[in-house]
């Protein structure tokens, strides 16, 4: 293995890379950095997560002439999300080099601001082909000083229809330029592109010998299509991960599962190729800042996502091939953290899983699904911890007075405490399922977890509803009652049958909560929520009196 110190790199970069915690170069880095630095055209092929960004990032930075303030390198990425990630990584590598300026340029960002930064002199830009083309056409970017063009995730860019833009951009750079292309796969379209624009490129392909990602506990559960959803929810409840990623094999499956999870009150959203860039950005932003706990994605959509602390990866659908399996589970356990991968197996899929196991030498063990009492136990433990914490935080005198009152009515403290715990933990909807029975007898009925489907036709993603059709409701519980948005969604969906994703903005204040719901559902909700409890608190739901302007402002705040 090659250490960065052993490469002919500048001190500043060696120090920055050490700060980033990189101990040695990954194979694609070891094989490509020096060749790129030599000025040759390069085609680099290796799987996701193998460090391609630093490979071209380091080489690119070493080729930049710090005294020349003109644009010298252009890095093209398929999406805004990736452009930002690449830019962040390059800025980390530039930590000790102050004289190199980089700028990400992508759609959706005010172009004026980009233009003014560009005027001040930027040597490297990282952008999506569309926005780079924009700047070229506006003449705010001139390609005639560019010495190097890097195409990151070239296969993905072609898939997304950027071929013409890429060719136009390549056509504008001077003849004396270097073109470096990185891709996870090499379809013929890419080979055509390289034949047309690269000169005797060096082709570097890294095949992973060791396919399995270490440090990840891998388990599988036997389920049937019909019980899969319930099984997934149980495992989620059992481990209660802060961030988890669920893989489905198709876009349709992603949409279905997101809807079902939202209907059950989970904070889940989907990511797949049919979403507009702006929707993908919104989802990713929520996932990063943890307003979103569960991301449901297809393999392609999840490619390139770089979120480090995903606790559990779920294979809701068993992936088609072993490499996908490895890529998927590699999303957890990053940066030396512990991770867990859970795979759901229906019937004969077990043979496919065995193939994957033998190919990757992965250790995937069968695990029994948690029973309801297992989950109750976990919830009870968590709740006792919460109680202990609340006691240690103090400020209880107001409540002590209430307890005193009750004691004077002849209730014992122990009964009062027990009743409170019951109110918090008891879930009247929970009924146990005999998973084994279902696993043996595989029902053909498609997905489980039936929910009333009354409003499903008008489905829209959360937060993309039409203003006119939404009404704001007031609920008399809030932060003080430990209410989370998912509790609100869960209660409304569970008690009234309105699909979870129809519920709009939720704003939780200390004492109360605002939630936006479709106008047509208000009646149902008001009557359905009558005499119901949320986390043990009797709730009162009514139409809010907020002025519309105010309401819009609040909503905006929630979604930004
Ligand atoms: P790719 O573009 O090949 O999918 P990335 O460049 O996104 O992969 O890298 C994946 C992750 O690995 C990132 O978190 C990155 O910081 C990290 N990484 C890259 N190179 C190294 C290295 N030499 N040692 C340790 N981690 C690395
Ligand atoms: Mg990459």
Overall description:
It contains 22 helices and 20 strands. The strands form four sheets. It has a seven-stranded parallel beta sheet, sandwiched between helices. The chain has a seven-stranded parallel beta sheet with strand order 10-11-9-12-13-8-14, with helices on both faces. A four-stranded antiparallel beta sheet has the order 16-17-15-20, with helices on both faces. Residues 440-466 and 546-560 have low confidence and may be disordered. With 560 residues, the chain is of the alpha/beta class. Helices cover 42% and strands 16% of the residues. It is elongated and about 90 Å long. Strand 3, helix 5 (111-119) and strand 4 (124-127) form a beta-alpha-beta unit. Helix 3 (52-63) packs across helix 4 and helix 14 (322-329) crosses helix 15 (349-360).
Write the layout of secondary structure elements.
Layout: H1 11-19, H2 27-37, E1 42-45, H3 52-63, E2 73-76, H4 80-93, E3 102-105, H5 111-119, E4 124-127, H6 129-137, E5 148-151, H7 154-159, H8 163-172, E6 178-183, H9 188-197, E7 202-205, E8 216-223, H10 228-239, E9 244-247, H11 251-263, E10 268-271, H12 277-288, E11 294-297, H13 299-302, E12 312-315, H14 322-329, E13 339-346, H15 349-360, E14 364-366, H16 372-393, H17 397-408, H18 413-425, H19 435-440, E15 470-475, H20 485-496, E16 506-508, E17 513-518, H21 522-528, E18 533-534, E19 537-538, E20 541-543, H22 548-559
Parallel strand pairs: 1-6, 1-7, 2-4, 2-5, 3-4, 5-6, 8-13, 8-14, 9-11, 9-12, 10-11, 12-13
Antiparallel strand pairs: 15-17, 15-20, 16-17, 18-19
Helix pairs in contact: 2-3, 3-4, 6-8, 10-16, 14-15
The structure holds adenosine-5'-diphosphate and magnesium ion (MG).
């Amino acid at each position: 293995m090659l250490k960065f110190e052993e490469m002919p790199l500048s001190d500043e970069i060696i120090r920055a890379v050490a700060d980033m915690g990189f101990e040695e170069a990954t194979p694609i880095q070891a094989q490509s950095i020096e060749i790129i630095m030599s000025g040759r055209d390069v085609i680099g092929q290796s799987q996701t997560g193998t460090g391609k960004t630093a490979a071209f990032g380091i080489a690119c930075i070493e080729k930049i002439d710090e005294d020349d303030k003109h644009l010298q390198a252009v890095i093209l990425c398929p999406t805004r999300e990736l452009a930002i990630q690449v830019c962040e990584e390059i800025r980390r590598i530039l930590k000790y080099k102050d004289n190199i300026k980089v700028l990400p340029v992508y759609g959706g960002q005010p172009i004026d601001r980009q233009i003014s930064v560009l005027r001040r002199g930027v040597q490297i830009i990282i952008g999506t082909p569309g926005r780079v083309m924009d700047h070229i056409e506006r003449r705010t970017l001139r390609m005639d000083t560019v010495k190097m063009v890097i195409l990151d995730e070239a296969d993905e860019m072609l898939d997304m229809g950027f071929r013409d833009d890429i060719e136009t951009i390549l056509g504008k750079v001077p003849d004396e330029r270097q073109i470096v292309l990185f891709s996870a796969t090499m379809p013929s379209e890419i080979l055509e592109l390289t034949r047309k624009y690269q000169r005797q490129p060096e082709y570097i392909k890294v095949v992973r010998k060791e396919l399995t990602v270490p440090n990840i506990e891998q388990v599988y559960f036997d389920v049937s299509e019909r019980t899969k959803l319930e099984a997934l929810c149980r495992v989620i409840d059992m481990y209660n991960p802060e961030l988890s990623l669920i893989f489905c094999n198709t876009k349709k499956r992603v949409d279905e599962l997101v809807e079902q999870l939202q209907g059950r009150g989970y904070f889940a959203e989907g990511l797949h190729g049919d979403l507009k860039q702006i929707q993908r950005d919104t989802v990713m932003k929520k996932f990063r800042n943890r307003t979103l706990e569960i991301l449901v994605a297809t393999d392609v959509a999840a490619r390139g996502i770089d979120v480090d602390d995903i606790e559990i990866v779920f294979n809701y659908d068993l992936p088609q091939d072993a490499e996908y399996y490895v890529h998927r589970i590699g999303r957890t356990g990053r940066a030396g953290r512990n991770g867990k991968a859970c795979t759901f197996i229906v019937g004969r899929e077990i043979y496919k899983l065995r193939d994957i196991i033998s190919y990757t030498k992965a250790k995937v063990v069968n695990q029994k699904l948690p029973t309801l009492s297992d989950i109750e136990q976990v919830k009870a433990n968590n709740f006792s911890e919460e109680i202990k914490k609340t006691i240690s935080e103090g400020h209880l005198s107001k409540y002590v007075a209430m307890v005193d009152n009750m004691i004077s009515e002849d209730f014992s403290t122990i009964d009062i405490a027990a009743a409170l715990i019951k109110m918090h933990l008891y879930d009247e909807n929970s009924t146990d399922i005999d998973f084994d029975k279902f696993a043996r007898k595989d029902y053909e009925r498609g997905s489980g977890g039936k929910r009333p489907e009354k409003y499903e036709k008008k489905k829209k993603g959360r937060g993309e509803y039409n203003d006119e059709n939404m009404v704001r409701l007031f609920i008399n519980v809030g932060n003080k009652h430990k209410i989370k948005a998912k509790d609100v969604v869960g209660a409304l969906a569970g008690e009234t049958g309105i699909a979870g994703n129809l519920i709009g903005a939720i704003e939780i204040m200390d004492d109360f909560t605002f939630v936006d719901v479709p106008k047509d559902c208000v009646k149902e909700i008001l009557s359905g929520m009558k005499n119901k409890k949320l986390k043990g608190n009797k709730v009162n739901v009514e139409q809010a009196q907020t002025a519309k302007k105010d309401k819009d402002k609040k909503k905006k705040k929630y979604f930004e």
